[in-house]
């Protein structure tokens, strides 16, 4: 595979003028020209796409881009996987929405419970933000307590009750031993933080101290900190959290919206061998269809049929359930082995390039999702450590890669799919080498 195969009509570099023109035009109907703030302020412009295929995206400028966004994580099988497309096509001929149950919903739920360690029972929703709220409501109902512990740098959706200290300026975040809750949006209810306790992650002692009061309903965390840097839990940390939650009657919630079905068929809880009381899932569960789930112990999930309100018009929509069942059935050991092989090759190749070129950077995480941070000499253990990365240099790097036909998230995360083969990895590393040398030439790195 050569660069001319990836960029057949663009010469040495991609141009994005038509995307820019359409985004500018779209601003008259949509604020910023987009429907999610997480698609704003992308350098050199938010992109407009025509189609996707395997590991590639095709945009309105005619560019063919190697894609490591993967829809911000969901596309673990790549774009347009045949089995998922066939399942969806078959289901859409039968109907779209019934306000009732379907066999395909039950099949998807059964497959889910067979794969996820904590899932004695589960329910479907449409987004990660929704299932987080469901998990918190269940935990409060089960314990009779109100307080929720969350951690700096962990993202649990955009609702007022949890959009706190996700990416706070360090100078506004207070002492790491007693962080200040920093709101994430204008218009957010200040009082929504009253029932929230923000702590530093990977610090078991501080959590044990706070839970001693036995007034906390739930501790919610990403079991591996993958939204802001792919940071591993320290040895013994998850086990310690599990133990102290059990001793204090606190519900442990793992937010596996990113890690679920990506780090393995049973997610991070299977990988690390620590089972939470409740867990939330999204993204890779249906390979791009709007599906999320809350799952956990039967006595806790059973509260949804005993007075805890959980609803949604589009929950378990049959077409999305067909995609879910097809995706989960495709997540076999051989698929994860393939992603691991190529992900490790890409991570090691990046490390080698940075070493040869004298660039200070870390490449951390997992073969299925990893993170690149410029300016860090050693892996971060929490949000405060990650905050020292050179974000401006990384944005310049991601922009140079995009010009060379490789699309990566500006926050540093790289998602892998089963469709990223050795040829795609080699082409990516060639573009990375060129981008790094260009940034060194211009003294950005």
Q: Please identify the structural class as seen in this structure.
A: alpha/beta
End-to-end Cα distance, whole Å, is 28 Å
Look at the structure and give the CATH class of the largest domain: Alpha Beta
In percent, how much strand structure appears in the residues?
A: 15-25%
Descriptive keywords:
single chain; 445 residues; alpha/beta; Aspartate Aminotransferase, domain 1; Aspartate Aminotransferase, domain 2; 2 domains; seven-stranded mixed sheet; four-stranded mixed sheet; 14 helices; 15% strand; globular; disordered N terminus
Structural features, described:
By secondary structure, the protein is an alpha/beta fold. It has 2 domains: 3-67 and 333-441, Alpha-Beta Complex (Aspartate Aminotransferase, domain 1); 82-330, Aspartate Aminotransferase, domain 2 (3-Layer(aba) Sandwich), CATH 3.40.640.10. The protein has 14 helices and 16 strands. The chain has helices at residues 3-6, 17-26, 82-92, 103-115, 128-143, 204-211, 237-248, 267-272, 298-301, 318-330, 333-356, 383-386, 391-403, 422-441; strands spanning 49-53, 56-59, 64-67, 121-125, 147-151, 174-175, 178-179, 196-199, 216-221, 251-256, 278-281, 292-296, 361-365, 369-374, 406-407, 413-415. Strands 4-12-11-10-9-5-8 form a 7-stranded mixed beta sheet, with helices on both faces. The longest helix has 24 residues, at 333-356. It is globular and about 60 Å long. The model is unreliable at 1-11 (pLDDT under 50).
